[in-house]
Amino acid sequence: MQAKWISKKELKKLLTAWTKHYLVYAPIDNDHELAFQMVKEPARIVVDGYSNTRYPAKSLFLPQSEVLMKYDGILHSVENTEKEKILFGIRPCDAHAMQLLEHALVDVENPDLYWKQKRESAIVISKACIAPEETCFCTAVGGSPFNTADSDVLLVEMGEDYCVYVLTEKGISLCKELPDAEDTQLQAVKKLTKKVVGRMPVLLPKQELHNALMASFETEFWKDVSQSCLGCGVCTFLCPSCFCFDIVDETVRKERVRNWDTCMFRTYSLEASGHNPRPTKVERTRQRIMHKFAYWVDLIDEIGCTGCGRCVKYCPVNIDIREIAEKALHREFEGMKK
Amino acid sequence: MPTTRDQKIQAEAKRLLQEGVVDVVIGFTKGTLPYKMQPCFIQHAEDVEQLELNGLCSNNLAVYLNHRPKDERTAIVVRGCESRAVQTLVLENRHARENLYLIGVPCIGILDLQKIQQHEQDPVLAIQEEGDQVHVTLKSGEKTFQRSEILHNACLHCNHPLPVNADMIIDEAGLFEERTFDKSYLESFRSLSLKERYQEFTKEAERCIRCYACREACPMCYCEECFVNHSRPQWVDSTIDPAGQQAWHIIRAFHQTGRCVSCGACERACPMNIKMTYLTDLLNQDMFKEYDFEPGLDPALMPPFLALGEDNEKFGVGPEGSHAG
Fold first, then answer.
1. Which end of chain B is less congested by CB atoms within 10 angstroms, N or C?
2. Complex prediction ipTM
């Protein structure tokens, strides 16, 4: 890892220069919300002062609707037309989520080529959070506002400058012109890191929570926490680490597409026979929480939530995943492993 | 701090549970964020202190009648729109009126977070309501609003803030006057050319992420299988391309004709801030013009599109039918 330094003014110039050689995606205010968009005018990039985009960055690699194949009598695969691109300004929670998605989509017997091609053609410049929101809890699930996971470069805003952590070869190629950070500057970054992280929630006991949830499976607990759930897809569609999809043949357009799907929809687990193994919102809510806090832990010993807080902030009925985890931890379930 | 309104709601809830009149009281309680309240389901008299009602209660509680057992004896804290939604559900045979107890509250309106929080970068840290004034702490500093400045549009255009056919009314002043059907705010939309109207509609629909929060937040959307999920034949494009987004929004609205109670819960649930009530209000305006009908206002009056005449009994619809099954 290298630590470099750049002024805000110089970074703007650099961003403009990058747009000439790469496709750059960055947070842009589109009058309704902040969203990752392809940059046409570098001046419109929102560089500082935001917490996160509403729509998750996963959409750049796993688009909500994506054409997989076209057919007209025979099938045609869709050509890989991915160009090298820069993803600028992604938050560490979303970058961490991409790492989780790599486990689910790439580190498997048949890797997802559609994701892989997009992901491999991207250089990720993430931005540390120096002012996390009230709904942020990355530190509770094993992340940090300064997390470097799955980033090529991490920027830390320091007054009128940025400290630039260059983390990979890809990152070096972008930042080689920049001067190294000085020791006093790096000490200031460390101090800031400590201050920001110190105000964040403490780490959840991963294994204890896993065990509690496993013991809770058949209990009334899930009836309680799912009671107010409306059954919409807000929590999962805005979640940076949810990756379920449904493949549909759009026969009119002669395309095979995949769309995001969600365990919160009643149609998600509905079988052709008419049987639904998750017939009510009780089972569906349980699935969402168990997947994040128990099944991911079983699979890779990591929590599958990165603490971005979008589900907390945008749930129409204020179902709060933090509250559910806390409740599960504090309830005594029968036959619980200690 | 519970207001006197809250105390009256709590007292009535307590009585209903203690006397065994109902099994559950559905209301609102404090949320986990300073700008959110949560729907809650009180089953024990000792828990009634959780009940609160303020301008941050953004859902239509009648929606839960579609989730809960039909034979459950249920009390609901209802504002005007919620009571009208309950009436419509009763007329549509979703629930028997005698199993329901409506604790009516004259409405003070629902606050629109989008009007309070001008920028995503300037989040709300605290909200304090004080009569007509609302004190807000934003990240950028303190601000005091007149309640009317930050009301949700559905509440600004509300005609019937008083609960209809409630079993009791909490004796507290509401914020609005009752009026006969007035949706004059729609005139600016109606005066647009066809092309301009299409542009307006597209501008909203194109942000849709097909999460169906609007559908699920709506008491009137209770179909076992929504048209949008129907696959054989498939009626609507499944993607987030304009064809799918527009079809969803327009057909959803049409299914609400003469049924939508204009509560705006759909818009408040939408994570993308898509405007939708103008569509259903336009359709309701037609219903008022053609049939002199406003959804949910008269518990004995059949909605025009349900009034099948001679076949009512056969189809088990209407006030009589609702008691039959």
1. N
2. 0.94
Residue A201's Cβ-count burial label (10 Å; 0-12, 13-18, 19+) is middle
CB-CB contact of A306 with A126 (8 Å)? no
The answer to whether position A335 is within a domain reads no
- How many domains in chain A? 2
CA triple B17-B21-B22, angle to 5 deg = 65
Instruction: List A86's β-bridge partners, or say none.
Output: A24, A123
Which residues, listed in sequence order, are joined to residue B274 by a DSSP beta bridge?
A: none
Indicate whether A81 and A108 sit together in one domain: yes
DSSP state string for B95-129: S-GGGEEEEE------B-HHHH--STTS-EEEEEE
- Taking only the tens place, the pLDDT of each residue in B35-84 is 999 999 999 999 999 999 999 999 999 999 999 999 999 999 999 999 99
Residues A182-232: tens digit of each pLDDT: 999 999 999 999 999 999 999 999 999 999 999 999 999 999 999 999 999
The answer, for A170 touching chain B at a CB cutoff of 8 Å, is no
What is the extent of the structural domain holding B44?
Answer: 4-112+151-312
In angstroms, what separates the C-alpha of B324 from chain A's closest C-alpha? 27
**CA A300, A301, A303, A306 torsion: positive or negative?**
negative
A250/B268 CB distance under 8 A: no
- Which residue in B238, B240, B268, B273 has the most chain A C-beta atoms within 10 A of its own C-beta, making it the best mutation to test that interface? B238
List, as one string, the DSSP characters of A211-251. HHHHHHTTSTHHHHHHTT----SHHHHS-SS---EEEEEET
Q: Does A73 touch chain B (CB under 8 A)?
A: no
Domain tally for chain B?
2
* End position of a domain, from candidates A148, A165, A198: A198
Which of chain A's residues have a Cβ under 8 Å away from the Cβ of B211? 232-234, 237, 262
User: Does some domain include residue A252?
Assistant: yes
Gap from A173 CA to chain B (nearest CA, Å): 32
Judging contacts by C-beta atoms under 8 Å, the chain B residues touching residue A251 are 234
